[in-house]
Amino acid sequence: MLLEHRGRLPRIHESAYVAPTAVICGDVTIGENCQILFGAVLVAEGGSVVIGCNCIIMEYAVVRGTSSHPTHLGDHVLVGPHCHLTGCTLEDCVFIATGAAIFNGACIGQRSDVRIGALVHLRTVLPADTVVPIGWIAVGDPAEILPPEEHHRIWAIQETLDFPGKIFGLQRAQVGETIMPELTRRYGRALAKHKLDIVLDE
């Protein structure tokens, strides 16, 4: 399904394949010889999504661009099934394995592998030829790559990256408090703009 979002339309190279159950929404550019498979979602919510040439976005992957963090994939990138990419840059020849997640402001250097279920956190920079092992977490700039059981070490870096401030403009809640009512109000208002989307391929 192709959708116009906030006056912006997808641009898809004639040689690319987009599966009939994929969703391409807004300011999304898909390059030559790309394959966008069943159930994939590419959505530009205030920031563009640009997919280079010869890329493969597999089943049920989500690739999102935001107003503060557009998403750009270089050439010969493979994004595996059930991945989630938001507001990030992937350079040429990157492999993102099944179930991996790449967060806002992250940059993945060329020829890098982010393996099954791994995570690259907010504003994290991976140099070329980096491997994030299965289920591990990359965090910071320069990135540290840590196993999930090292939560305290991961959190010590992650806390300074200020996810609620950078993404939602909110100060992290104190113990016993929550920012969730205001967070969901703000995010809900932004997402509600999809009510005005126009289906292009009916």
Task: Describe the overall structure.
This protein has 202 residues and is α/β, with parallel strands linked by helices. The protein has a single domain (2-199), classed as Hexapeptide repeat proteins (UDP N-Acetylglucosamine Acyltransferase, domain 1, 3 Solenoid), CATH 2.160.10.10. Helices cover 14% and strands 31% of the residues. The chain has three helices and 24 strands. The protein has helices spanning 151-161, 163-168, 180-191; strands at 2-4, 11-12, 17-18, 23-25, 28-30, 35-36, 41-45, 49-51, 56-57, 62-66, 71-73, 78-79, 84-86, 89-90, 95-96, 101-102, 107-108, 113-114, 119-120, 125-126, 131-132, 137-139, 144-146, 198-199. The strands form three sheets. A ten-stranded mixed β-sheet has the order 23-22-19-16-13-10-7-4-1-24, with helices on one face. A seven-stranded parallel β-sheet has the order 2-5-8-11-14-17-20, with no helix packed on it. It is globular, with a radius of gyration of 17 Å.
Please give the structural blueprint.
Elements: E1 2-4, E2 11-12, E3 17-18, E4 23-25, E5 28-30, E6 35-36, E7 41-45, E8 49-51, E9 56-57, E10 62-66, E11 71-73, E12 78-79, E13 84-86, E14 89-90, E15 95-96, E16 101-102, E17 107-108, E18 113-114, E19 119-120, E20 125-126, E21 131-132, E22 137-139, E23 144-146, H1 151-161, H2 163-168, H3 180-191, E24 198-199
Parallel strand pairs: 1-4, 2-5, 3-6, 4-7, 5-8, 6-9, 7-10, 8-11, 9-12, 10-13, 11-14, 12-15, 13-16, 14-17, 15-18, 16-19, 17-20, 18-21, 19-22
Antiparallel strand pairs: 1-24, 22-23
